[in-house]
Design brief:
Distance between the termini: 40 Å
Helix content: 55-70%
Number of domains: 1
Number of helices: 6
Largest sheet: none
Number of strands: 0
Shape: elongated
Amino acid sequence: MAGLLIGAFSIAGIASCATAGPYNPSNLAPAQLAQVQQICHSVIGIPVGIGLSTDCVANLSGSAAALIQARTHGVALDEARRTCLGKGLAAGDPALPVCELSSTSDHGAPAADAAAVQIDISGLTPPAKSYFNASFDEVRRREQMACARLGYDPINGSFAKCVTSLDSALFASQHVMQ
């Protein structure tokens, strides 16, 4: 009886794994997740199906989700600024930032709009060398290109944060402490 019960749970476990969707740690829209996966393969040069690929997707998915949140919050702050300026406050007035923050907190956090991030995958082809055969400088350039393709602007500090985060995640994936 116990063997039958264990067998039933094993089959149920296998069935639930078979119906699970793709690894999507940041709950991106399916199209965006596919685009992130394509960036890991075609920009970074990581073969599909290895742990490093999963770590790349997890990191870039998080960066895409952070960009969605930042842009959504930025839109809310822009609206709050217009409202506060409409009340007669002027740029440089110390009451303006207080009004802006009060206006955004009064309305609650805006819902993140996944469409706010347009991921550029146009013209992607796998690089001539795989990630494992690329020089340090080439890997760094690929990491920068991956973040740029997500929509990060190289002039902003968030771009450097995206690149550093990706670099750290890929390094940690290859240098697991034992």
